[in-house]
Design a protein that fits this description.
The protein is of the alpha/beta class. The protein has a single domain (about 5-205), classed as Aldolase class I (TIM Barrel, Alpha-Beta Barrel), CATH 3.20.20. Helix content is about 45%, strand content about 15%. It has helices at about 5-15, 25-35, 50-60, 75-85, 95-105, 115-125, 140-150, 170-175, 195-210; strands spanning about 15-20, 40-45, 65-70, 90, 110-115, 130, 155-160, 180. Strand 4, helix 5 and strand 5 form a beta-alpha-beta unit. Helix 2 (about 25-35) runs parallel beside helix 3 (about 50-60), helix 3 (about 50-60) runs parallel beside helix 4 (about 75-85) and helix 4 (about 75-85) runs parallel beside helix 5. The protein is globular, with a radius of gyration of 16 Å.
Length: about 210
């Protein structure tokens, strides 16, 4: 797929699952749970143990899922992501050099930004999606999104940070064009099993299909 085709899939799905794990052996299990539940786009963050290896494995095992690299803060990490076979790039910060490098390799970029200036800088540099991050901290949320998006309604925004079953519907009702979700969607531990991950994914997809 070329960059536009990958971007189209992300925009159609409206959700990117964020996998961040300190236990490398958990990554494949989490991806399998997400894939079996219908998730079509996911990112493996650069601070996940063995992230390059896990991207390669996921690409080989799940050809029908878009596998991206997250927490790509600079071009060094972007190169590692490309070498691993990532199909899109997600950043927490506004680094326009990452956009240039990713686009050379036909990868769409979901670029992190928060302030109006950062959002406009990312969009002007060619970010395919601007990731409003962090969206779930105190004083940053749906009211802030509405205030920012009113004058910047020409920019595609995804909300990332603090998104869960408790508020995902409210975000879409407010007009957000997509979300990135970690938390209970991608965390595997004694309090959040693979079955819990599957159930969360299915519930989120059921909500999103109405928007």
């Amino acid at each position: 797929m070329n960059r536009q085709e990958k971007l189209t899939l992300i925009l159609e799905e409206k959700i990117v699952a964020i996998i961040r794990s300190k236990v490398q052996s958990d990554v494949n299990q989490i991806i399998e749970a997400l894939a079996s539940s219908g998730i079509k786009a996911l990112e493996i963050t650069s601070n996940t143990v063995g992230f390059m290896e896990e991207i390669k494995k996921a690409r080989a095992k799940y050809p029908d899922i878009l596998v991206g690299a997250g927490t790509i803060t600079n071009t060094t990490l972007a190169k590692q992501a490309v070498d691993a076979g990532a199909q899109f790039i997600v950043t927490p910060n506004t680094n326009t050099e990452v956009i240039k490098y990713a686009h050379l390799h036909e990868l769409p970029v979901l670029m992190g930004a928060l302030t109006p200036s950062e959002i406009c800088e990312a969009e002007a540099a060619g970010a395919d999606v601007v990731k409003l991050f962090p969206s779930g901290t105190e004083n940053i949320g749906i009211p802030y999104y509405k205030a920012v998006s009113a004058p910047l309604d020409n920019i595609t925004l995804f909300a990332v940070g603090g998104i869960g079953l408790h508020n995902i519907k409210a975000w879409f009702e407010a007009g957000i064009q997509g979300v990135g979700v970690g938390g209970k969607l991608t965390t595997l531990n004694e309090n959040n099993t693979l079955e819990d991950i599957r159930n969360t994914a299915k519930q989120m997809l059921d909500i999103i299909k109405n928007f």
